Amino acid sequence: MEKHTAEITINLNEKQTIVELTQLLAPFKSDVYLVNRSGGNVVEANVKSLLGLVSLRIGNGDRVTLRAEGSDAEEALGKVVQFLS
């Protein structure tokens, strides 16, 4: 199983929504997890999970870690990085 990671700083424009992000990953077999360590808490969620993303409470300027696992992990991770930064 492929595994890839990336660290990015969130930089969303006001037109982007987390619903779009979950839809972007729908065609991929791999799972992508986002880890938010801001505010003294560590919260991780699968990016395909709308509820999980809401629980992360990410905002512009947050430094997060992305981890992708699966047969198309590299491509899925690239899409998330592009969307969030």
TrEMBL record:
Pfam families: PTS-HPr (PF00381). Transmembrane segments: none annotated. PROSITE patterns: PTS_HPR_DOM. Signal peptide: none annotated. InterPro entries: HPr-like (IPR000032), HPr-like_sf (IPR035895). Residues 1-85 form the HPr domain. This is Phosphocarrier HPr family protein. It comes from Alteribacter lacisalsi.
